[in-house]
């Protein structure tokens, strides 16, 4: 916060958004964010993106099987039946991939603020189920972050636009993301945001 206004911290590349992309290179490097995205065309089989589609999901889920047909990297069945990814001969849970992204964000914030970051609030799609929300919390734990709260992305968007100053309203929040398009209907009452309904097209975005 600066002068009571939220400030989006720029990453090392000078950008205010960091792609949720993790890549594993031939020389043993692990790239996260912009550097990972830049080399995706030449290293598609070992560049992990859209891991949010897999987090908290079983390998045999219909949604997982549908995504297998379009993802260029390898998705495997873990010992517990969950969907994991494989790169350079190593298997990673989606939580671990998410943790690498959170670590990158943690480092960015610490570099800017000059202080260690130990806590975080993480947003998730409104349609995430309990398993997916818990898996997101687990990603935070792997990244050495105490996740204070998991909040719905449309709620975060409404807060960002000052909708918390209004009361007794029903609003619609559209989210056209990198890979999904969803709409949520929120009711604001007494400063509490309640998601009344949500719908999503999981393969429309960009």
How would you briefly describe this protein structure?
Helices cover 26% and strands 29% of the residues. The protein is of the alpha+beta class. It has a domain at 154-201: Nucleotidyltransferase, domain 5.
Structural commentary:
The chain has 206 residues and is an alpha+beta fold. It has a domain at 154-201: ATPase, nucleotide binding domain (Nucleotidyltransferase, domain 5), CATH 3.30.420. 26% of the residues lie in helices and 29% in strands. The chain has helices spanning 34-38, 62-68, 94-113, 130-142, 153-160; strands at 22-24, 30-32, 47-48, 74-77, 83-87, 90-92, 119-124, 146-152, 169-176, 181-189, 192-201. The protein has a 3-stranded antiparallel beta sheet with strand order 2-1-3. It starts with 21 loop residues before the first strand and ends in a 5-residue tail after the last strand. The relative contact order is 0.11.
Structure characteristics:
Nucleotidyltransferase, domain 5, alpha+beta, three-stranded antiparallel sheet, 206 residues, 5 helices, 26% helix, 29% strand
Judged by helices, strands and strand pairing, the structural class is alpha+beta
- In CATH terms, the superfamily of the domain at 154-201 is ATPase, nucleotide binding domain
Q: Taking strands numbered 1, 2, ... along the chain, how are they ordered across the largest sheet?
A: 2-1-3
CATH topology of the domain at 154-201: Nucleotidyltransferase, domain 5
Organism: Strombidium rassoulzadegani
GO molecular function: ATP binding; ATP-dependent protein folding chaperone
Protein name: Heat shock protein 70
Keywords: ATP-binding, Nucleotide-binding
């Amino acid at each position: 916060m600066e002068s009571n206004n939220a400030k989006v911290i720029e990453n090392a590349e000078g950008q205010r958004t960091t792609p949720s992309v993790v890549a594993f290179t031939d020389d043993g490097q692990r790239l996260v964010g912009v550097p990972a995205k830049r080399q995706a065309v030449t290293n598609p089989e070992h560049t992990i993106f859209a891991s949010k589609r897999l987090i908290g999901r079983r390998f045999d889920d219909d949604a997982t099987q549908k995504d297998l047909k379009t993802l260029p990297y390898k998705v495997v069945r873990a010992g517990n039946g969950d969907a994991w990814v494989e790169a350079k001969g190593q298997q990673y849970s989606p939580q671990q991939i998410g943790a690498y992204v959170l670590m990158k964000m943690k480092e960015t914030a610490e570099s800017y603020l000059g202080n260690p970051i130990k806590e975080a609030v993480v947003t998730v799609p409104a349609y995430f189920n309990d398993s997916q929300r818990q898996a997101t919390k687990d990603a935070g734990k792997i990244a050495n972050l105490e996740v204070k709260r998991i909040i719905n992305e449309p709620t975060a968007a409404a807060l960002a636009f000052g909708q918390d100053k209004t009361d007794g309203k029903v609003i619609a929040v559209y989210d056209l993301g990198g890979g999904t398009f969803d709409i949520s209907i929120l009711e604001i009452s007494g400063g509490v945001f309640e998601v009344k309904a949500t719908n999503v097209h999981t393969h429309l975005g960009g």
